[in-house]
From TrEMBL:
Subcellular location: Membrane
Protein name from the UniProt record: KCNKI protein
Natural source organism: Pitta sordida
Membrane-protein topology: Multi-pass membrane protein
Principal subcellular localization: membrane
Family, similarity comment: Belongs to the two pore domain potassium channel (TC 1.A.1.8) family.
Record-linked InterPro entries: 2pore_dom_K_chnl, K_chnl_dom
Domain Potassium channel: start-end pairs: 101-159, 293-364
Pfam families: Ion_trans_2 (PF07885)
Annotated transmembrane regions: 21-45, 105-123, 135-153, 286-306, 318-336, 342-363
GO cellular component term of the entry, any: plasma membrane
Keyword Cell division belongs to the record: no
Superkingdom, natural source: Eukaryota
Length: 391
């Protein structure tokens, strides 16, 4: 029986783990599928568009040709005037004139664009040009942003649980260290002696006889007749079997009799897991300084790795880029030469945005507490003093 029960227990634990992880995996998988579908859609629409040279582009080329010829013919001309004219002309130029759509809207480029859309980063260096692409971008963001927030909330529960448990364990360890330092040798020895004396005073009673046990039973008190030894032993064995009988698992009984009930119970647990999303994040209460330090370390790690494939970035520029990205500001002033490498760190982006989101939430809670204290302080100052009437 023991050999057959162990595999059953292993299967049950595996099923419990699977149904517990299922909501989290479902959210992440749906976001990944949504990003890939968007990349295929935008790469097909924007990448295969026809490039039509507009009249503005032709005027731009004519002005540029005129300025360069005029400067080369008159070498003694003012260089500052030439730079100012070129600067004004380049301001009128559109970025789309000098970009090949198939190169920019490749699969990885479109996937990077989709990630900037539903994460609300929006660098601005890649944007749809066609009318259909713009309409689909609005529709894509309409469904993608709530899905991204749902993933952030779900990941926030996991991260909040890890942070709260780690912080509580750190506080317990800190309290134990302080208690061990405060506890002197003499007091600790006295406490150990008191514990040993209390344990030594425990009285061990001798086991009752059969007749003493049966005298306590209600059936024996009701019938004062004498029992034979065989009957006494049978009653005692029956009583012991009642107490020693293991409790039968109700879920196993339901599964053996009606499997639909067990499935319904499992489905109800899964639905409860969906309903608990965001609960752990609301309970989180850790120091805001700890979250700021965690953000600094987290961004510093990426800022040290990013310049390995982005040669135009140093540590400071990479730190600035990661901060602007994780806070979803996304100015677009720093452009990546290899965005597809940065896409492999999508998990880093999601976790980083979650850490920043938790830090903002904690800061919001602290500001609310501060506002409450200020309002209560001002209300106490404005209240008229209590009048003391003579008795």
């Amino acid at each position: 029986m023991a050999s057959t029960s162990q595999p059953l227990r292993g299967k049950r634990t595996c099923k419990k783990i699977f149904w517990a992880v299922f909501p989290h995996a479902c959210f992440i998988l749906s976001l990944v599928i949504y990003a890939f579908l968007g990349a295929l859609m935008f790469s097909h629409i924007e990448g295969n568009r026809k490039v039509n040279l507009s009249e503005e582009y032709r005027i731009f080329l004519q002005n540029l040709t005129y300025i360069t010829r005029n400067f080369t013919d008159n070498m003694t001309g003012n260089e500052a005037t030439f730079k100012d004219t070129i600067h004004k002309l380049l301001k009128r130029a559109e970025q789309d004139w000098f970009v090949n759509p198939k190169e920019r809207w490749s699969f990885f480029g479109s996937l990077f664009f989709c990630c900037t859309v539903f994460t609300t980063v929006g660098y601005g260096n890649t944007y749809p040009v066609t009318r259909i692409g713009k309409y689909l971008c609005m529709l894509y963001a309409l469904f993608g942003i709530p899905l991204m927030f749902l993933v952030l909330t779900d990941m926030g529960d996991i991260l909040a649980t890890v942070l709260s448990k780690s912080y509580n364990e750190f506080r317990k360890l800190q309290s134990k260290i302080l208690a061990s330092k405060l506890c002197s040798g003499s007091t600790c020895n006295q406490r150990s002696e008191l514990k040993s004396r209390a344990q030594s005073k425990i009285v061990i009673n001798e086991p009752l006889t059969i007749m003493e046990v049966l005298k306590g039973q209600a059936s024996v008190k009701r019938r004062p007749t004498k029992y034979r030894n065989v009957e006494l032993f049978e009653m005692l064995i029956a009583r012991e079997n009642e107490h020693s009988k293991p409790a039968r698992n109700k879920s196993i009984e339901r599964w053996s009799s009606c499997p639909e009930l067990a499935r319904g119970k499992t489905m109800s647990r899964v639905i409860e897991n969906f309903d608990k999303i965001g609960k752990e994040l609301e309970k989180l209460d850790v120091p805001i300084v700890l979250m700021v330090l965690l953000i600094f370390v987290y961004i510093s790690c990426a800022a040290a790795i990013l310049p390995n494939w982005e040669t135009n970035l140093d540590f400071q520029e990479a730190f600035y880029f990661c901060f602007i990205t994780l806070t979803t500001i996304g100015f677009g002033d720093t452009q990546l030469e290899h965005p597809k490498f940065f896409l492999f760190l999508s998990l880093y982006l999601i976790i980083g945005m979650e850490i920043v989101f938790i830090a903002f939430k904690l800061g919001q809670d602290r500001l609310i507490v501060l506002y409450k204290k200020i309002i209560s302080f001002c209300a106490e100052k404005k209240m008229p003093p209590k009048k003391v009437y003579p008795k």
